[in-house]
Design brief:
about 475 residues; 4 domains; Rossmann fold
């Protein structure tokens, strides 16, 4: 039978709870103050404690702190006044499972207790400590996975770490391209030298050049009087990680190519060339090969990047790694939150594995972080997961995305009509219309903001403006 301890100094409330709990099949016990309640918890080890905030002597919040310090497995439900917001917030901060407001509504009590014992049931299926699964020297963000795809990635990282050639890492947003770049650097002979990242997609066109190559005093308006070294100089002897290189303008591409060819740079406003020893690791979420065909990326720079290429698979293609990633993120997050998180229920894990994860590993981490923050005890339940996960997309066994399915439906009608009318040049017509319609829709969503539009579409601002101009002329 499930044991519940009620700690309350109001005899009428204690009697009412005792009658109700017995009728629901629980085994209740009563303590009229916090000190007696703590002794009963130590002796009887109840599953759940219903704890009133206002008690004679030690307060309910003080007792909650003691319970969590010495009996962390006990689920504590706080009884408090309905409008006592401060107490409720403090109780949840002290890791109360939930609270029952006064005047007592037994339907609410029943619902909270059912959730509490569901949590207890899940606990029994989990290992004693999630933290045991990860050794201390593996803490911090790292690459995680035992799938065949990830094993190949690890092999390639080892090969790339053994030389100093330029590397191109390709993959969707959120797949962990930065972690791969750091792993290559850490495993290389340059590990003691700096690893310097640059997000080419986050910097405006006019700032990227000065950020990469630095500038001399007075090189432009607002330039620092003493000048500033660029990222190439800061990475000298080490590795320069250029993230989202597909967003670089043609002018920046030319200067970067020259620096790669000569291993020399020139600060803005200077005529003096500086010798640098830098290994370049580039990353992109775009198809650079297709951008080369469209004239949006320099072919010579593309092939210099692509000497060694590594493609990171999206999370939907390596579902078997999701439990390992969840364990890893729970380890990181429980240290940040300062509360133990033992794991996630089997039902919750199934929901995670059935979701399509358009944001990949980064989206999974954010999901687990949110769930761990909101969960009332040391177990994540389905109710703790974001709504899009609970009601989200099921993995399509054919591998076809919902977007692709929707597009095919529309294109099927267009194709049939074109065949009937014996039209020609359908491909160019459809691509041009799709290009124009998508840009207009995104521009409208961002109220005409070109920078945000270009960022969402995955193209440079220069390319976006060119496409808008071409669309206006048609």
């Amino acid at each position: 039978m499930k044991n519940i301890l009620v700690i309350d100094d109001d005899e009428k409330i204690c009697w009412a709870f005792e009658q109700f709990l017995e009728s629901e099949g629980y085994r209740p016990s009563i303590a009229n103050n916090a000190e007696e309640g703590l002794r009963r918890i130590a002796a009887d080890k109840p599953d759940v404690v219903l704890l009133d905030v206002k008690l004679p002597g030690m307060s309910g919040l003080e007792a909650l702190g003691e319970i969590k310090a010495h009996h962390p497995w006990v689920i504590v439900i706080i009884i408090t006044a309905y409008d006592d917001v401060e107490t409720t917030i403090e109780a949840m901060r002290l890791q109360a499972f939930d609270f029952v407001p006064k005047p007592i509504d037994l339907d609410i009590v029943k619902s909270v207790l059912e959730r509490a014992f569901r949590t207890q049931s899940v606990r029994s299926t989990l290992p004693a400590e999630t933290a045991d699964e990860l050794s201390t020297d593996q803490s911090g963000h790292r690459l995680v996975g035992k799938s065949s795809q990830m094993r190949e990635i690890y092999k390639l990282i080892g090969i790339m770490a053994s030389n100093t050639m330029t590397v191109l890492i390709e993959g969707e947003t959120g797949t962990g391209k930065d972690l791969v770049a750091r792993a290559i650097h850490t495993g290389s002979t340059r590990r003691e030298a700096p690893f310097v990242p640059v997000d080419c997609g986050a910097l405006p066109d006019e700032l990227l050049e000065s950020e990469l190559f630095g500038y001399e005093a007075g090189a432009f308006t607002d330039a620092k009087k003493e000048g500033k070294p660029g990222r190439f100089e800061l990475a000298n002897g080490g590795t320069l990680f250029l993230d989202e290189v597909g967003n670089m303008t043609p002018a920046s591409q030319v200067k970067l190519l020259r620096a790669l060819q000569t291993q020399e740079i020139e600060r803005l406003g200077s005529t003096r060339r500086l010798k640098v020893d830098v290994r370049i690791i580039a990353a992109t979420n775009q198809e650079l090969g297709e951008m080369v065909k469209r004239g949006q990326f320099r072919e010579d720079l593309y092939y210099r990047f692509k000497r060694i290429a590594l493609h990171l698979p999206p999370l939907r293609e390596r579902q078997e790694d999701i439990p390992l990633l969840v364990t890893h993120f729970l380890q990181l997050i429980q240290e940040e939150l300062g509360k133990p998180i033992r794991g996630i229920s089997e039902e919750g894990m199934k929901l995670l594995q059935n979701y399509t994860w358009p944001g990949n590993v980064r989206e999974l981490e954010n999901c687990i972080r949110s769930a761990a923050t909101l969960c009332r005890a040391d177990v994540v339940l389905p109710d703790d997961l974001p709504s899009e996960i609970r009601t989200g997309h099921q993995i399509d066994p054919t591998g076809t995305s919902h977007l692709e399915t929707s597009l095919k439906s529309v294109l099927q009608d267009i194709t049939k009509e074109a065949i009937t009318q014996e039209k020609r040049g359908l491909y160019e017509e459809v691509v041009a219309l799709l290009d124009k319609a998508l840009i207009e829709l995104v521009l409208d969503e961002f109220s005409g903001n070109h920078s945000k539009t270009a960022d969402l579409l995955g193209m440079s601002r220069t390319t976006l403006l060119k496409k808008i101009k071409q669309g206006d002329n048609k």
